[in-house]
Write a sequence for this structure.
């Protein structure tokens, strides 16, 4: 199924299209292998720049916050003890507990940061629920806006080879920058 077919299908669903546009990023919070940027592109192309970003932001923000709350609720169980003992999680958890919310905020602003890891680490950290709520709300809005602006005019981008190259370079740059930040904060 092509992106154009998905857009047509979502338009034909009326108001339920917004529900689907919300649910796809929401579900991605639980299944991080799903392509969030594709969902945002489709939402922006289907609903327009502003509404597409808002629908995507609400889905990913609320989904990520639910993941955080679930992890927080089960933080002292055997399963979470295994997660806490993973080397990468333990390193980042120690860093977040020492440095505060800034690293999580910065990393969540980039669309290609492993947000599932950020949500889990925040849930296991000493961070207050209200603080994470605010950090997540603002950083996810920035990430969805960046992604939405890139995907704003998907049809014209895909019809011009130079625009495709520019878009790929921008996405690769954002991906590279998020990986560098991840490595810097994980040291």
């Amino acid at each position: 199924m092509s992106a154009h077919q998905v857009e047509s299908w979502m338009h034909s669903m009326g108001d339920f299209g917004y529900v689907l546009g919300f649910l796809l990023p929401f579900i991605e919070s639980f299944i991080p292998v799903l392509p969030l940027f594709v969902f945002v592109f489709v939402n922006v192309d289907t609903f327009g720049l502003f509404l597409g970003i808002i629908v995507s932001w609400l889905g990913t923000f609320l989904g990520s916050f639910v993941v955080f709350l679930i992890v927080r609720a089960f933080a002292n169980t055997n399963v979470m003890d295994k997660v806490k003992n993973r080397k990468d999680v333990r390193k980042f958890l120690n860093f977040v507990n020492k440095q505060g919310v800034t690293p999580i905020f910065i990393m969540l602003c980039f669309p290609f940061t492993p947000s599932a890891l950020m949500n889990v680490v925040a849930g296991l950290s000493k961070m207050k629920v209200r603080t994470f709520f605010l950090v997540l709300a603002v950083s996810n809005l920035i990430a969805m806006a960046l992604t939405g602006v890139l995907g704003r005019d998907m049809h014209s981008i895909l019809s011009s080879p130079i625009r495709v190259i520019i878009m790929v370079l921008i996405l690769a740059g954002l991906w590279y920058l998020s990986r560098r930040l991840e490595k810097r904060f994980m040291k």
Notes: The chain has one domain: 3-186. The first helix runs from residue 3 to 12.
